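anyone seen this seq b4? input:
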Amino acid sequence: MMNRLDPDQQRAASHDSGNACVAAAAGSGKTTLLVARAIRLVEAGAHPSTVLTLCFNRNAQQTLVERFRQHPATAGAAESMASTFHAFALKAVMALLPKVSVLATSAAEAARVERSGQGRAAGRTVRDVARQAWTNLGGFAKGQAENATLAAVDYDTALRLEPLVRESLFEHGYPDVLGDATQLRQALQRLRTIINDAEYTEEMRAALALLIPAIRTEKLPNVRNNGRREVDFADMLLGLGGFIRQEDPRVMTLLAKYRHVQVDEAQDGNYLRWFITRAFAALPGEGRSVLAVGDLRQAIAGFTGARPAMFRKWWDESTQYNLPRNYRSARRIVEAGNVVARGESWNLGGDCVAARADLGEGRVEVRGVSPLAIGLEIASDLANGVITHKDVSVLARTRASLELVAFALRARGVRAFVRGGGGLWNSLLARAFRAYLHLADGGRVPEPADAVSALNHPVRFVSRELMSQWVLNGHLNPSALAQTVSRGGRMAQTAVKVQKVMRELRGLSWEATVAYAVAQLQEGLIEEQANRGAPEGAETDYLELVESLRIIAVTCGSAANLEAAIAADGRVSPDAKDVVVLSTIHMAKGDQWNTVYVSGLKRGTFPSARAVSDAEVAEEMRLLYVAVTRPVSRLVLCTMVDDTGTFEPKLRQLRNTLATRTDKGDVTPELPAPALPATTKGEAIDAENFVERWQGGGQLHVFAGLATNAHEIGRSTPTV
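predicted toks r here
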């Protein structure tokens, strides 16, 4: 195994005592190193049960297990040699609290828990618990002062923040806030690092102080009766951290069993993961080792509470190893990553080196090309056999740009799968948008909840439940609206608003109706962000999504065509050979394609307008680094504007030093928008008049066919 490693990998794999840190460049073989080192330790005499690699997700853990199974020294113990942090914590917690059931985030995750044999599923999800807690709070606060508080934040926001809040409370010394609203309120008032004035209003802080203990209480309904305790994945890490902090001898004995611990993707570790890692490192005894592997240049998980600074601190305190060789990409792609990272404080490890001469020079382009044009160009290349579906991907910071690419692909008969975030047409914004379009068609809204999202936003006059029932009972016709207004009360306020909307929509053309819906959503978004005290420009990501909805709707030309296009965005397997996978950059980390387009490079979108602090701006730059290091041989950076904010100096340097060379060998500093090639049928593709040509060609049948094929071929969407 060792003779297949390069010299830098061999040095790191030979480490067998004390703490170590490996700065591993993109494509440098982190997995190869972790597997080789674990096998070397076993061959040198360590028992397989004492060697453990902690991973951050299940896919990485499964990859390691498969590799361990392939070697005779570790084949019999492969399952025990790699674990996710959460699975390891669950094992430890269940050893002390055997009557534990796991609240998964989805039914599929619950099934995995049951199959693993490491725990029992609770029969409901974390979301179910949060929804019930929110409902209970709504009843408790009805008619009281807290009602305004609850309107300021939805339970999804609180559910997303709850683990971060509790982990930060743990960091600041609060050992247990389960179900104790008073203690949690006091803690939140003192804790400004997680819920600060710049991002959350006083109302939102108060709502979290109410909701989080309500979630905790709802999650622990039977503790007093039979000792059964429901926990989620954040609870597991917190539980293990709590036992370590108390120096519980049973847990410390469990930790001491592992003499050699490896931590993968350590740059994305949060406080709790590093707390557990350092607990391993603090155990007494000779011949112990803890090795953390990561790439600070790819630290892009700040939104989950990741602490890149803790990786840097571990680097400064430990034996240092560097893996600078990139085995994934051609020379120009590697140099593009160097350009992005060069001169940055987080460029731990320095410049990378292209180690694969057989991949050639590669190609880097900086071009003015829209998301629609990207989709049409890819469709043309597929039709002409220039690329295959799995050769290419489009990456973006947000899903909005990707949806336009997917729309253009589907319009040309190409199936596309967009990963990262929820489905476009299932989002609250998209449902509200469609509701306006259907309201213009006599108020026949397919789903009452869609009308609720549109008409009861951003000001919540009545509860969603009451509004849904009102719509369901047919109160959108003029006579029913008039009767509701005449009765007075809070429902009358909503009816007046609905009357106004219906009057304004009456008789509008399709384009005017779309413009009206867009204006309503834009106004609501800006008002809502202002009411929440969000920083200026915080609504930019949402406005980009609204613009994508507008382009798609206008292109479709009618509600019927739009619904057909939405149906085509069906259940498609990303693994199918004839499916192009598009991805947010966060979801693309660790992946590679021969050709990668990076879409949406413009001030306010990517980099995000939400990035205000130095740390946030740095993470946006690292996100760009991750994007440009995904391709093997061709990178296309797509920007339609001259000013890309903090990215502009980097893009200018890429234009000047890495642009595609002409036949004469000189560098072209500025590349024009592409002249898109013809399809195999000789039909030219032009992104500029795509809307007119698509409408004129009546291509509804394309989407209808895609919808049928999607449901026949991909009956379920695998977890990505």
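The first strand starts at residue 18 and ends at 24. The mean pLDDT is 78. kinda curious what u guys think
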